Write the structure tokens for this entry.
Amino acid sequence: MSSTFPAASSPVTRAPVSAARARTIAGYRNLALWTLQGWAAMFFFAAGYAKLTESTDNLIALMNWPALVSEDLVRGVGIVEVVLALGLLAPLISWKLGRWPLLVSAAGLVALEAIMLTVHMVGMDIGLALTNAVLLAITIPVLLGRR
């Protein structure tokens, strides 16, 4: 029994994607990106709100790093998280703003999470480090998909 394979030099051609199929793919991609944006915004808004409203003792019980820095820094990180979370959803508020608030917010959150991943790894907070890794896995596709 012999089988024939196409020659290595012959390129495999694919049928062009129809316009309807391209719109469907773009629609699914857009839905996936909005879903990731919503999850990231929800998490960062809640985390920032907690940093702004909880007592320092409660924050230290939940995380180790607030014990090592000033309370003002913890509150500042909370403000940054809330503002960046709202920036992720800015296109929902007004399309006239364009994509720049979303892109700036996504880039800021990627930078913040990379820094906090390092802080948690150095502090041996494995659970929080894994949480930051998952958040990076959510936020990086948003940044790259919306550019």
